[in-house]
Amino acid sequence: MLFGKEHVDRYQETDGREGHDWQGTTVLLLTTTGRKSGLERTTPLIYRTDGDAFAIVASNGGAHDHPLWYKNLLAQPEVGVQVEGDRFRARARTASPEEKARLWPSLTATWSAYDQYQTKTDREIPVVILDRAA
């Protein structure tokens, strides 16, 4: 299965029965609002839980610029999240250095390429916390 539009479509159509489990890890769908277009965009992202919250990585494959979804949530932190059949609103925030240090080992355990991505770029790859809205 592709990791893009086809992935998002299958995930949404099957409530995550197809697409949640992916290449030995787990994936959620993040919907952000375009900071320039105002259009909603949905991206499949690897995640780990952190208590009641979810942690994702803005790696962009180690590119020198942040992924567009991260730039969008910086401008508008209210986001949509889907984890399997559970769809909810959340508030996104960049993890503090202490939170990142605590979460990074768990995130790299589920996707070891994150460590490689960090070595490919001078930018600090952010970890994002998604807190479910009340």
Automatic annotation (TrEMBL):
Domain of life, source organism: Bacteria
Xref: Pfam families: F420H2_quin_red (PF04075)
Catalytic activity annotation: oxidized coenzyme F420-(gamma-L-Glu)(n) + a quinol + H(+) = reduced coenzyme F420-(gamma-L-Glu)(n) + a quinone
Cross-referenced InterPro entries: F420H2_quin_Rdtase (IPR004378), Split_barrel_FMN-bd (IPR012349)
SUPFAM superfamilies cross-referenced by the UniProt entry: FMN-binding split barrel (SSF50475)
Record family assignment: Belongs to the F420H(2)-dependent quinone reductase family.
Protein name per UniProt: Nitroreductase family deazaflavin-dependent oxidoreductase
